[in-house]
Every structure is written in structure tokens, then in C-alpha cells.
Amino acid sequence: MAAFDALLRDIDAPVLVHCASGNRVGAMAALRAAWVEGHTVEKAVEIGRAWGMKGLESAVRERLASEPGAG
């Protein structure tokens, strides 16, 4: 997650992040939204969905729920 965040943070231009379905990219975006940007679980999942997350939503929710301070 730290490497993904650094890539996004250090780029001063629009970025295309790709995977075959968008599902993995969306999951990474959701985790980043919660862990780095401090969004609640619900907002992070919403962001993940906007990035293409579908089938990994339950795994992301589980991972976020296991973190201290999960909202």
C-alpha cells in the first residue's frame, strides 16, 4: 500500500491505473482511501467501487474491519 500511495502521491498529472477487471485497482483505492486518506469504511468502499471494485468488496471490508480505528 505504501508503494501504491507513493506512486499516486508523487505524480503531478492524471494517472491511469489498470488491471483486467478494475477489481484489484478498486480494492487498492479503497484500502488507500481508508488507511492513507482517513476515510470511513463506507466512504472507502464507495471510492473503491468508483475505481471498479466488485468481487473484492467483502475482502476489503474484512481487512478494513481488522485494522485499529476502522470506521
- Which term fits the overall shape? globular
Q: Structural class from helices and strands?
A: mainly alpha
- The helix content is 55-70%
Along the chain, the helix and strand elements come as HHHH
The separation of the N and C termini measures 19 Å
The largest pleated sheet is described as: none
Based on CA atoms alone, the radius of gyration comes out at 12 Å
Topology readout:
Layout: H1 2-10, H2 23-35, H3 41-50, H4 57-65
Organism: Lysobacter zhanggongensis
Domain Rhodanese: 2-60
InterPro entries: Prot-tyrosine_phosphatase-like, Rhodanese-like_dom
What attributes does this structure have?
globular; 0% strand; mainly alpha; 71 residues; single chain
Explain how this protein is built.
With 71 residues, the protein is mainly α. The chain has one domain. The chain has 4 helices and no strands. α2 packs antiparallel against α3 (41-50), α2 packs parallel to α4 (57-65) and α3 packs antiparallel against α4 (57-65). The longest helix has 13 residues, at 23-35. The radius of gyration is 12 Å and the shape is globular. The chain starts with a helix and ends in a 6-residue tail after the last helix. Residues 2-60 form the Rhodanese domain.
